[in-house]
Amino acid sequence: MKALQCPFLSRLPSNSLTKQAPSVIGMASQCPVMRHAMKYTKLATATGTDMPTMMKKCPFPHHKMGGSTVAGISSLVGGHAASSSPTKSPAAGCPVDSKKPDSSKSEKGSSKDGEGRETPFPYEQFWSDRIEAKKKDHTYRVFRNVERNAQTFPLAKVVKEGARAKQDIQVWCSNDYMGMSWHPKVQNVVKETVDKHGVGAGGTRNISGTSPLHNLLEADLAKLHQKEAALLFTSCYVANDTSLYTMARMLPGCHIYSDAGNHASMIQGIRTSGVPKHVFRHNDPQHLRTLLQQQPKSTPKIVAFETVYSMSGNIGPLSELLDVCEEFGALSFIDEVHAVGLYGDHGAGIGEQEGELRRMDIITGTLGKAFGNIGGYIASSSKLIDMLRSYCSGFIFTTSLPPTVLAGARKAIEILSSEEGVMLRKRHQMNVSTLREMLYEAGIPVMRCPSHILPIKVGDPELVFRLSQQLLDEFGVYVQPINYPTVQRGMEMLRVAPTPHHTVHMMEYFVNSLVALWKKNGLELKQPHCTTCNKTLQRQHWMSNSNDLCAGADCDKYVQAVAAC
């Protein structure tokens, strides 16, 4: 009998068996042993009989984890939490013979009813179970019905289900970072474009869907990033996914190196390409060097990373990463989605701010955040862009961006490249700094990061949802809760994104609202403390250092560090 990895238990850490009951039950339904145990357990619970002996027949939990674990699993299946967590790791494989047919299935794998007749798979029940699992572990996503107002940004209204009236709200989590979506000049050019060209593109880029506006916008983007050419996509998710996939598949013997904090779009393109991948520690050039030096310089290599990371707010060490890429002959593939429009003299991103545009091989960006429209793009050499234009399925087989978006994006880029853009970026950074200081002084646990994103760590999926709901219901403040899989479990947060258009009065109201809810929910308001001497860290020191050590004489680690210098 061939030993296989148990699809029920091997996917879970041991301490999740009792804490993540919905997910456990969802995976248990895939196990030919546990599935029957679950059905029997429901009957046993209703009739008061003993737990099913079939539960003990699964050779994985019975022999590999011990009877106490089986009891814990039994409790989960019966809908109750076990009294104690399993202590042994479910790392071993489940020796269920994959060739041995389940008695409840036909030769084709279909389920049978009690009379032996084949029944179709219960699709709707399966969808319902998966949704219920998300709700029970508090990762189910609730979309707020926000009615934006082009005249009052960042104020808006929220439409609540079943409510007649609309609630006035402040929006603190929009990716319309600079307010370009409602800028009067952007609105006017979009209106003119509708009258002149209509609202649709008319086809794919290859079949009647390319217009002079496409070519003009691609030229604008190439100029902005100091590249030979650029190519538009329907989103930057598509741009990252299909570009990485295509390049990796075409380059002979290609290896891809990916930052551990990369966006799902890059991860998807890398994964589906099927080429060897290597994940280096987040923002760690030395670890990247260690991995790259294991391959010959002649091996095609792509290093994919971001400049501004959308959830943590971290900014990558661009120059150091580029040094390593050049040292080992690797192409740099750099996502500037949360940087374009916000950094640099003309809004070209971190690359422009640090004077590194010429060294960046491939840049991807979005038209849907600071530029206030929708769509994505990639900028690079003319030969690479032509190759992607000719081979990327995500570019070829989809309707192109409509003329209204193209005209609006061009105008937004023009504005943010001008003196008005410089002024907006200065005001934006000033507001970010002011709000960060307010949160720090109030004892709200804002995470330390150098970008325009202010993550407030909560660390609990149920609590972060409750805080977000209370902010909306009680104070008219909208901040979307961020949870798994957008961030790792235990890193749940309120992601705050100030704009140049938030006022100091709005900031004060927002911080006071947070403080009130922190107290209401019994949470601690505490400024960051030194991990050694427990003194409160001064704000300037906290912002300018990567560690939580103060500069006091009582701080042993600080004194040791100074002595070592």
Largest sheet: 7 strands, mixed
From the spread of the alpha carbons, the general shape counts as globular
**In which range does the helix fraction lie?**
40-55%
Radius of gyration, in Å, reads 27 Å
Q: Characterize the quaternary organization of these chains.
A: single chain
Strand-residue fraction?
5-15%
Our measurement of the CA-to-CA distance between the termini, rounded to an integer number of angstroms, reads 62 Å
Strands across the major sheet, in which order? Answer: 6-12-11-10-9-7-8
Query: What do the pLDDT scores average to?
Result: 84
Category by helix and strand content: alpha/beta
Number of strands: 16
Please tally the helical runs, counting DSSP H or I stretches of 4 or more residues.
21
Poorly predicted runs: 14-19, 40-57, 59-108
Overview of this protein structure:
- Helices cover about 40% and strands about 10% of the residues.
- It is α/β, with parallel strands linked by helices and about 575 residues long.
- α12 (about 320-325) links the parallel β9 (about 300-305) and β10 (about 330-335).
- The chain is globular, with a radius of gyration of 27 Å.
List the helices and strands and how they pair.
Layout: H1 16-19, H2 21-28, H3 34-47, H4 59-65, H5 67-77, E1 111-112, E2 118-119, H6 123-136, E3 146-148, E4 155-158, E5 167-171, H7 184-197, H8 212-224, E6 229-233, H9 236-250, E7 255-259, H10 264-273, E8 277-280, H11 285-292, E9 301-306, H12 318-327, E10 331-335, H13 350-353, E11 362-366, E12 376-380, H14 382-391, H15 393-396, H16 403-416, H17 419-442, E13 454-457, H18 461-475, E14 477-478, E15 481-482, E16 493-496, H19 504-520, H20 539-544, H21 556-564
Helix pairs in contact: 2-6, 4-5, 7-16, 8-16, 9-10, 11-12, 17-19, 18-19
